[in-house]
Amino acid sequence: MTHAPALSSIITPDHLAEFATEHYDLPQPLSCRILKTGMNHSYLLRTPKERYVLRVYYKDWRTQTEIAEELRLINTLKAGGIRVAFPIPDTWGNFIQRIMACEGERYVVLFSYAPGESVRQPSETACHQLGLTMARMHQITLGKSVRRISYDADTLIRQAYELACSRFSESLPEMRYFRRAAARIEAEFGAADPTDLRYGVVHLDLWYENMKIRQDSEITIFDFDNCGNGWLFLDIAYSLMLLFRTEPDREIYRRRSDHLLRAYGSICPISAEEMRLLPFGGLAIWLHYTGIHVRRFDDFSNQFFSETFLKFWIDTVNRWMKFNDITI
Known about the structure:
Blueprint: H1 13-23, E1 31-37, E2 41-46, E3 51-56, H2 64-79, E4 97-101, E5 104-112, H3 124-141, H4 153-165, H5 173-191, E6 199-202, E7 211-214, E8 218-221, E9 228-231, H6 233-246, H7 250-267, H8 272-295, H9 307-323
Antiparallel strand pairs: 1-2, 2-3, 3-5, 4-5, 6-9, 7-8
Helix pairs in contact: 3-7, 4-5, 4-8, 5-8, 6-7, 6-8, 8-9
């Protein structure tokens, strides 16, 4: 029988349990179940005493070099004392595996399990800890680089706008906002004094679904799939915007953001120029992910990505900008 080609598949947990048993020195018995099928597919592996996460990358989403650089960054952070979900080598010392799915070859990496809970509305204490963790992470990544994308106005928002134009009419009010936002970000980033902006490697997706909090005092960061080179204020900006999005009480948000910023600044001073650009950083990254929704429409975003969703998406970021007294 000839099998029809596929864009994407969900590999069975039973097969991956056998795969992990063959490739890793893990105690038995070992069980496997699906955790999440998102941009990549994550599976929870359980042994009698430990838990692990097996990530199966979407076909052709990342090159082997990009994944290797992601893992190099994570291991560097781990060596520097940052709590991260770190890659675990196979029996022969390799971090990256390959598995042949029906759509073609996909990369596989085994990660340690991040303890704690994903907290949508973290306490002020947890926000303080997040600020400390982010600053310590940036101490390590300042001046460093990875062989991956470099984030700037073009790669963050101009390209995202062009991708969105392939899906939506440019005459839509939301797309007109998108166009104005792209022009404004290009102007603001272009006018910034580079000597006042710290540059290095950024996570770019620091929100509650990519970190676990335990007892308000321990934060473990994971999912560095979007890491790249860029201004360090981008990580601060996106974290603040996501805190804003999930907290309807603005006074509570102000207290949480103040705790994060003061904690971060106690380790890494934030320049006035970086502070000025924080609202624009949140705007740029939020709209950047619109471009990813377009790129991954066939296998990921088609269940929600529509004109209605675009209205919600633009309204969310517009409320963030208005909160910061900025009109786009």
